[in-house]
Amino acid sequence: MTEESSRALIVERFGSPPRIVERPVPVRSPGETLVRVHAAAVGHLDLNIVDGRFGVLPEPPFVPGTNACGTVVESDVHPEGSLVLLRGSGLGLRRDGCWAEHVVVPDKAAAATLDGADPAVACSFFSAAGAAWAAVHDVAAIGEGQRVVVTGAAGAVGSVAVQLAVRAGAEVIGVVGRPAKLAHVPAGAKAILAADLSEEALGGAVDALVDTVGGPVLAAALPLVRPGGRAALVGYSAGREFTVDLADFLLADVAVLPVNLMSRAGGLAEVGERLLAEITAGDLTLNVERYGLDRIDEAVERLRTGAAVGKVALTMD
Ligand SMILES: NC(=O)c1ccc[n+]([C@@H]2O[C@H](COP(=O)([O-])OP(=O)(O)OC[C@H]3O[C@@H](n4cnc5c(N)ncnc54)[C@H](OP(=O)(O)O)[C@@H]3O)[C@@H](O)[C@H]2O)c1
């Protein structure tokens, strides 16, 4: 190979901003695949790892990045030049991750992906689209004619959840926190601000809630679900805690259900392939904000503050 050095982002200690280092292109051992990374996702999980706030953590200094997409450079099992997704096998958790121009991964952490897919989409779509699918179809069981509220409706999970619920024949109200995001709620849904959430604004109680925001937004949205309705809880960007008054909870008679993509991921593999094909074909929309390695601070800030519209990815090309 001709390239001698390669850039990577390193976290020296938990909570410190990642910084760029030049290092030799990593060398693989048998059982490993060397990949030229085109794009790597910057997700909430990655930020929790950078902050040292996750159950499994790498030993600093480490290269973060749990999901990426790239081209195989050397491997015993994956065809050279093929496009692969990188995830699992402790990537970015128990071993260096993918926020780098080159990465060596266990063979089984690489899997062929759709030829012609946009690498920034391919590496970041699954957590959003998979969680949205699970929330809308498997957990909230949204169907024709139902009235549904989706919070964080311009976010990655929320925007896909809106599209899937609209497609299922539901009447969808998309809730966003900031006025600038109203225009980013996908077509087919009514867009309103979280501050305006009320039964009046919704035109009456709804059948289901898909909440991707948590905290005070969940507290405001949950009472708007009708008795016998369902609430699928996906995320907690706005707050991890939520207080329940048991008397109100029992009276409300709403099923509050967790969406856990990790436990459902295996069963959603085929759905994932279909959703990536739909995004690639333009039948489903998932916005991805892209940043070079030298703009990691901006990428992190956009995601942390909730200002990002859709997914955030590092692009290395
Ligand atoms: N349960 C699972 O298996 C699973 C799978 C994937 C993702 N998740 C979680 O689901 C949540 C949504 O994921 P996502 O990829 O859709 O994230 P996202 O694109 O960042 O969307 C989250 C939305 O939360 C809102 N928000 C309100 N206050 C915020 C704050 N203080 N900081 C950040 N965002 C804030 C923002 O919308 P407004 O500006 O409209 O308020 C933002 O668009 C995350 O918590 C993620 O960890 C869970």
From TrEMBL:
<dbReference type="InterPro" id="IPR013154">
    <property type="entry name" value="ADH-like_N"/>
</dbReference>
<dbReference type="InterPro" id="IPR011032">
    <property type="entry name" value="GroES-like_sf"/>
</dbReference>
<dbReference type="InterPro" id="IPR051397">
    <property type="entry name" value="Zn-ADH-like_protein"/>
</dbReference>
<dbReference type="InterPro" id="IPR036291">
    <property type="entry name" value="NAD(P)-bd_dom_sf"/>
</dbReference>
<dbReference type="InterPro" id="IPR020843">
    <property type="entry name" value="ER"/>
</dbReference>
<protein>
    <submittedName>
        <fullName>NADPH:quinone oxidoreductase family protein</fullName>
    </submittedName>
</protein>
<feature type="domain" description="Enoyl reductase (ER)">
    <location>
        <begin position="15"/>
        <end position="314"/>
    </location>
</feature>
<dbReference type="Pfam" id="PF00107">
    <property type="entry name" value="ADH_zinc_N"/>
</dbReference>
<dbReference type="InterPro" id="IPR013149">
    <property type="entry name" value="ADH-like_C"/>
</dbReference>
<dbReference type="Pfam" id="PF08240">
    <property type="entry name" value="ADH_N"/>
</dbReference>
